[in-house]
Amino acid sequence: MKLDPSKPLTIGARRTLKALVEAMEQMLAKKDFEQIQIKEICDMSMIPRATFYNYFEDKYDLLDYVFQVEITPLLQGAAGGAAGTAFGAGAEEGSSSYDPLCDHMQVIDALLGSAEEHREELAAILRKNPVGGAFVRIYEAYFRRAVYQYIYACGIYEGYDIPRELMAQVTADVILDVYEWVYIKGNETPREEIDRYISKMLIR
User: Fold this and answer.
1) What's residue 91's pLDDT?
2) Per the structure, how many domains does the chain have?
């Protein structure tokens, strides 16, 4: 990605990025990601093509940024910023920082709350971007990676006799699998059942 998220943005850059993100989200509700052209994104956002390339290499680059904008803040705020270092410039996978308030259930609450809030928008996108398609594959890969980083940085599995990396990976996989089952594959499930599924699937 040409855009360096660690550097402050000008007001003009923030407006440009906001317009491109909104255009991508609107286009995803209209057609399959693989069929979307950069020209269409630029036309919808009224951003010149040359300006697009000042920030992004291609539409995949922009999509990754959309996920950063939509998913990462949810995880950073899940425990009142306790896991903020998981995504910052100074974060290292070997960090041992641990906040006792940081828990996988807070991740779940943040993600499911957002999914409920944006259920209609997500459903519209998934009608044009089916399971197995490029959008869902990329979305799930980003989702899993972001949740893994959060869980790892929280250190909730410190002291276990199973490698911390493995426990964080399994937790991220379980959260994603349940999220996919309910919100991507459309299996209507009461919230208390979702929590029960996850509690049963995770060994704490």
Assistant:
1) 35
2) 2
